[in-house]
Amino acid sequence: xxxxxxxxxxxxxxxxxxxxxxxxxxxxxxxxxxxxxxxxxxxxxxxxxxxxxxxxxxxxxxxxxxxxxxxxxxxxxxxxxxxxxxxxxxxxxxxxxxxxxxxxxxxxxxxxxxxxxxxxxxxxxxxxxxxxxxxxxxxxxxxxxxxxxxxxxxxxxxxxxxxxxxxxxxxxxxxxxxxxxxxxxxxxxxxxxxxxxxxxxxxxxxxxxxxxxxxxxxxxxxxxxxxxxxxxxxxxxxxxxxxxxxxxxxxxxxxxxxxxxxxxxxxxxxxxxxxxxxxxxxxxxxxxxxxxxxxxxxxxxxxxxxxxxxxxxxxxxxxxxxxxxxxxxxxxxxxxxxxxxxxxxx
Length: 346
What we know:
This protein is mainly alpha-helical. 52% of the residues lie in helices and 6% in strands. The protein is built from 15 helices and 5 strands.
């Protein structure tokens, strides 16, 4: 962050190595998902400034913590940035971590380091109207979670010509949504992990380790009665001695990548598939409808359209932090008011 000869702040920042790769990934995503060019440009510039600062300070953006972001804000204050600029840069950083958190191609989970920072309280940033506008834009809205009605055609257009593949693939898609499991977790479900009468599946987390999260290393998920027939139909036609629920025609365990491909192909068959990000050569890097998107959709639906306790949703989703689960919740003041009066009546 330097001034030029006219005492103006310059925006020339040259990123390199992994920092440039991180920026290019985000740039492709925000360009594809943002509707306004001015918003796109501002967010890209804000993230570029953040990554450049991380590069200068030799900080891994994926390892950034609350104190890291606070140090960045203090640097901008020392460099005499306007409150409005700091607020917008702060929002850009927050938006960037929503992108990282919800990117299914990343094999690690992280928390948003901006989540517990209050610009007015922590840094005396008094541009309140702008700050609240940022908070209104921030949060769950950045989680791409199609509604059930939007993704329903996937279940009706699964690939496969034989009964074996049609039944299996439909069950895969429906279970991914109903249980909100990751494709890796689905691929590892064993027959002896299933309680058929209770509609209960025990599985091992694809993200958490036993030492840090003993209560979530193994967790339970459930399916609804409306796919009982499909579950038992698949159980009756699958062949071979494999201990795994989902197998190929030769009896081998399905790979997570193959499971994800089934969802993408079903969305293509239903003519609802869309590209989210592209490579530099124009090829598609990330599709809208994926196995992980079904997970996001289900968690969002449970959090906002049902009475299921948020902690139970957290347990079912395998979230180590309640903050992760809360990021799926829509702020609804009418619902909050009604819940308050119901809780205190009498």
